[in-house]
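Lab meeting, item 3. Inverse folding demo.
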């Protein structure tokens, strides 16, 4: 009986981040190949297909892993090998504002496309904001890939309307498909330019499931 009670208390601690505060759903694991965890309340939970992820969970992938997270806003995020991210904030509506904290590794983010009937009366200027150690990305109607390794961030807009890349020392905007920039610690983002095919292919492979 005591053991069953202890397990029940542990389950409540994992499911409820803070006393009196209801957990907010960020999204669901849409597809997972390999191994990944969600750290919640200091406890690492193994992830699997169909598992719900909460706002505040730190999601981390292992070697040879691909994970696709479908957010309730309608956006999707794919993580590659040895990558980690946290959904810091998520409006509970389609097309709502999302804030992601990306720590390291590689990601592919696809913001949602909504119909006129679904768009809020005052939609956010940039429905998705991705914060990295080197810069903040503001994204709208876009598919964007990024890699954060040590003191370097590489970002490319694969398709869409635009990506605003803001670093402490400067800002650039990616406006054309396959246009990218690099941001190194303490330096302004490089002038946007078309990436070479070799680098584009490597970026695609880093988040491909097959």
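The presenter then showed the designed sequence:
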């Amino acid at each position: 009986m005591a053991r069953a009670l202890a397990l029940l208390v542990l389950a409540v601690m994992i499911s409820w981040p803070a006393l009196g505060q209801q957990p907010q759903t960020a999204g669901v694991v849409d597809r997972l190949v390999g191994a990944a965890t969600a750290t919640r309340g200091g406890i690492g939970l193994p992830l699997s297909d169909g598992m719900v992820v909460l706002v505040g969970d730190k999601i981390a992938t292992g070697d040879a892993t691909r994970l696709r997270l479908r957010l309730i806003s309608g956006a999707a995020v794919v993580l590659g090998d040895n990558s980690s991210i946290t959904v810091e904030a998520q409006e509970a509506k389609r097309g709502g504002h999302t804030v992601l904290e990306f720590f390291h590794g590689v990601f592919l983010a696809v913001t949602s496309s909504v119909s006129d009937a679904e768009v809020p009366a005052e939609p956010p200027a940039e429905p998705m904001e991705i914060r990295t150690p080197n810069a903040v990305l503001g994204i709208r109607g876009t598919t964007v890939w990024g890699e954060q390794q040590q003191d370097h961030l590489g970002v490319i807009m694969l398709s869409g309307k635009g990506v605003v890349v803001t670093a402490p020392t400067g800002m650039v905007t990616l406006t054309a498909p396959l246009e990218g920039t690099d941001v190194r610690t303490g330096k302004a983002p490089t002038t946007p330019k078309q990436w070479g095919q070799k680098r584009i292919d490597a970026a695609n492979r880093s988040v491909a499931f097959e």
